[in-house]
Amino acid sequence: MLDNKLTYKQFCEQEKAVPLFLKYEWFNTLYNDIEWNVAIEYKGGNLLGFLPYVITKKKGFSLITPQFLSPYQGVYLNYPLDQKYANKLGFEKEVINGLIEQIPPVNAFKQNFLPQFTNWLPFQWKGFEQTTRYTYIINDLSDKDVIFSNFKDNIRREIRKAEKSLVIEVIDDITALYKMKKEVYQANKEDYSIPLEKLKAVYGYCKQNNCGELLVAKDGEGNIHSILLYVWDEESAYYLHGVTSLKYKTTGSMSLLLWEAIQRSSIKTKAFNFEGSMVEAIERYFRAFGGIQTPYFQISKTDSKILKLLKY
Question: Which of 248, 249, 275, 312 is such that its CA lies 20 to 30 A from the CA of 79?
Fold first, then answer.
């Protein structure tokens, strides 16, 4: 009998193209303090696909839900080479059906799938629902002049203004991001729910695996205006987490940091994903950087009658 986690680990070690948020070590680092596992479809000595998931308990319910600092989850498919399109769709159906059968019985399931996952029909046929969400992606990082010219005028003005008074540094102190986040949330009378230990785990993983940087924008007196954490894999970089001090909301510091992250990403990977937001003000801001509006799926299923009533 296969040890799913061991098989998953070995595959991720061999296949460098597995997206960052679906890697074994990402899950094992971030969620080793809670229950997580992986469904694997395996045939003829080949791994065909997998679906990692985290199970949480809340008020007596068992849930598979999106996790802090993991914007995407979902299915990874290991396609055979030179597959015809019709065969590709049949392959997706067969593998996804096998993965669905391995999802443990929980009261509710919900995951945000990577944008490159486009065929959710096998989930629909098994009683799942889908909500379309959006992110913005700069798909080609090869020409910085073209990228900058595609920014809206106000973003370019903000960046040019910020360049005159701010400097950018790479730092290692993830607690600086945590403290500023706490301050902003408290000022808005909201709870910042990401634990410091979780942030440390993410940043530690990124440092160890050379797949993330923490940038700050400072003025001449050493005051930090904004902090940004971005990460990357072989296909894309992602804006993961960031904050701007309430004192310096109008200095253009976050726009400057995003432009710096995009430029740095151009020598590391192929694209830059703003990680999306369904909040209108945030969507408007990300859209101004000229990325392509790109849909991705939130796939869900609620088996608990009580949760269904609460939902509707």
Answer: 275
Range of the domain at 49: 4-134+297-311
Q: How confident is the model at residue 1 (pLDDT cuts 50, 70, 90)?
A: very low
- Judge if 19 and 129 occupy the same domain: yes
What's 93's domain CATH number?
A: 3.40.630.30
The model's pLDDT over 159-172, given as tens digits with 9 standing for 90+, comes to 999 999 999 999 99
pTM above 0.85, yes or no: yes
Cβ pair 156, 148 in contact under 8 A:
yes
Confidence grade of residue 305 (pLDDT, cut at 50, 70, 90): confident
Taking all residues of the chain, what is their mean pLDDT, rounded to a whole number? 95
Same domain (yes/no): 147, 286: yes
Whether residue 268 is found in the same domain as residue 249: yes
pLDDT tens figures, 135-186: 999 999 999 999 999 999 999 999 999 999 999 999 999 999 999 999 999 9
Same domain as 111, residue 49: yes
